[in-house]
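Reviewers of the previous submission asked for a worked example of the structure-prediction workflow described in the proposal, so we include one complete record here. The input consisted solely of the amino acid sequence. No template or homolog information was supplied to the procedure at any stage.
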Amino acid sequence: MNQSVRDELQALKAQAGDKSRFVFESPKKPGEPLGEIKKAFNAVLKDAGIEDFHFHDFRHTAATRLAEAGADVYLIAEILGGKFHIPDDSLLKMKFLPFMVEVQSQP
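From that input alone, the workflow returned the following structure tokens.
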């Protein structure tokens, strides 16, 4: 999380005060967390003029940022909650996995 996101979340928390313990509260069930964000997410994308972007794309961005920070593929899979499987013909397996395993096994 970068500082801009952290600042915005802290501002939202301050704005809510003691009214809610959630940053995103359900408008239908006060005091409960927002359970579904698909409509709001799609509305924001439309308002911003962003096309061909899906919520799942954030997973790809997170995985990329973790890899750039030096996380290995097993840790990335654990953090993102996915099962680790790389197809035999994938670019990741052919080019990067041997290097990652080599780095991981060094003392």
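The chain has two domains: 3-48, 57-105. We consider this example representative of the routine output the project will generate in years two and three.
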